[in-house]
Amino acid sequence: KVQPITRIDDRNLQPGPIYRKARELYMDFAHSK
Fold it and tell me: Domain extents for the chain?
């Protein structure tokens, strides 16, 4: 599974473009099976 890193220690992070790209690639891979 590809999930965004939303917390590092006590810092809250928004899912960024790298997460979106990784999820897009993963979805393409998962649906190609």
Answer: 1-33
